[in-house]
Design goal:
The chain has 146 residues and is mostly helical. The protein contains four helices and no strands. The N and C termini lie far apart (42 Å).
């Protein structure tokens, strides 16, 4: 005997998925803008000590935002169009080596410790995304418990 799970209220699940997808795209835009603002502030502060240091931070931030958006786009393609997992992994490795090469280039024209500014800019979007998602989860949990 074949048993099917589900409910007659299938619209509720699709509405929930649509709401979640809408929140995801809104979060992606918000995080991109907040990360750009944060990176510009850090780059301005770093440029007080040297223009190249500010440029290192901006380069890291641009790479970080690009990396965040590329990871999201590739994950969406993997889930939506069902592209192969091996291609997904290969693109991730290629992206990782490309951004690592840019970090190494930073040390050519700046002091070796300027790579830290590059990485601050690079990981800022991911940190901001994590903070944003955590606050949304806490807010949703408090609304559900009320």
């Amino acid at each position: 005997m074949k048993v099917e799970e589900g409910s007659f209220l299938g619209d509720r699940n699709s509405q929930s998925a649509a709401t979640g997808l809408h929140a995801y795209f809104a979060r992606k835009r918000t995080v991109g803008v907040r990360a750009a603002i944060f990176i510009c502030v850090i780059a301005t502060i770093a440029s007080i000590f040297g223009v190249r240091l500010g440029l290192d931070t901006l380069l890291g931030g641009a790479c970080g935002i690009a990396n965040m958006l590329l990871v999201m786009q590739h994950n969406e393609a993997l889930l939506g169009r069902g592209r192969g997992v091996l291609m997904h992994i290969a693109r991730g490795r290629l992206r990782m080596f490309g951004f690592a090469a840019l970090a190494a280039v930073v040390t050519i024209w700046s002091p070796w410790w300027a790579m830290g500014l590059f990485f601050i800019g690079f990981f800022a979007p991911l940190a901001i995304y994590a903070i944003q998602l955590r606050s949304e989860i806490i807010r949703e949990a408090s609304c559900t418990n009320s």
